[in-house]
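WARN no homologs supplied; continuing
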Amino acid sequence: MNSENLDQIATQLDSQSMKDRMLGLASLRDVPAADAVPLIKKVLNDQSIQVRSMAVFALGLKQTDECYPILVDLLVNESDYGIRADAAGALGYLEDAKALEPLSRAFYEDTNWLVRFSAAVALGNLKDPRAYDVLIQALDSDEVVLQQAAIAALGEIKAIDAVDAILRFAQSDDWLVRQRLAEALANMPTPKSISALNYLAKDSHPQVAEAARIGLQKLAA
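OK structure emitted
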């Protein structure tokens, strides 16, 4: 991208209008990471939480060596829980194995459920089997959304050893939990997984049944 276009985006990011600043961030979609990150940093402390959230998310997509330390700092030290959750999610997009430790710590220590949810999802996105213990513990959460995230993430890391632990959710009252279970089992090729997917393929909720059928096809391929 030429310098004139970059200058135009920089001007938008300096605008008093929140709409302009958000449009400026959106314009970075096709800008190379090395050019985009310095511009993203201009609005990381924006007065608008929506602009900050969008900027943090962008750091997960525009990856340079600067992004990881910035996101970890936000995850650990930011006072706004929404931004901490955004930082956790962005760390997952980076797919950097170093993020396992700060994300695990956020899951164990953060007091906000949304941050812990984002951390669990991000651990799945890392696809690092070392996240197993954290995610198994997340299954025992009182928050259903955390159970959903943990089941999905265990599927992402293909944790075959977790099959017995997640099968207890086959009769969950929450259909989204059952859907996440079906999707996770599709990544866990065991006889128990196939049996459970055959059971879920008869589920009363169409999305659960469809996820189970897709899972069976995947395991049969």
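The chain has a mean pLDDT of 96.
OK
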